[in-house]
Amino acid sequence: MTYRRSAGSPRGEARRRELLDLVTEDLAVNGLVDFSLRRAARAAGTTHKVLLYHFDSAEDLLERAVAQLRELRISRSLGAAADEPTLAGRVRALWPVLTSGESWVLDQAIGLAIYDADRHGGLARGGTQQYLPALVSLCPPGWEQERKADVAAMILATLRGFLIDLRTSGGDPVGVEAGFVALGRALDREEAAG
């Protein structure tokens, strides 16, 4: 068990949120390359010791900042998908949000998790835990929960594949567009099955 003196104190929690916001803003601009506690401290206008007072470690701070960036991305994505009448349309509406803004930073987080799963695996697991409920919420309300979870997991895996293809192809969207056509057909069939 770790001990964080700010835990439980309203003043301490407010300061912790403020520090996390400042570090998250830095990540959104500068990415994860060369992330360190000292860099985070500079971005937050404090010292690395103060950050360790409020967070368990540099990895804890990094995971929390990446999670905060993801929450912003998820919120914008769901907003973009809200007016689409079909599941395929809702998933398609997510894509521009998933590939804009801070998406390159979140792609770096997945890369770190792949490169060093022991140290940074939480970045990928955290993403899955954040994205799946959002994708489940896009499924038709009449579906059984297990079916929603299965379809959401398939959508997440497919979109991650599309992101990797887009990033490794130098931004050429041809493969992704073909993939979206096939994904749309599969989701339309799934939705038609009731």
UniProtKB/TrEMBL annotation:
Protein name (Swiss-Prot/TrEMBL): HTH tetR-type domain-containing protein
DNA-binding region: 36-55
Tagged with keyword Methyltransferase: no
Domain called HTH tetR-type: residue spans: 13-73
GO molecular function: DNA binding
Keyword Transmembrane attributed: no
Keywords: DNA-binding
Cross-referenced InterPro entries: Homeodomain-like_sf, HTH_TetR
Record's signal peptide: none
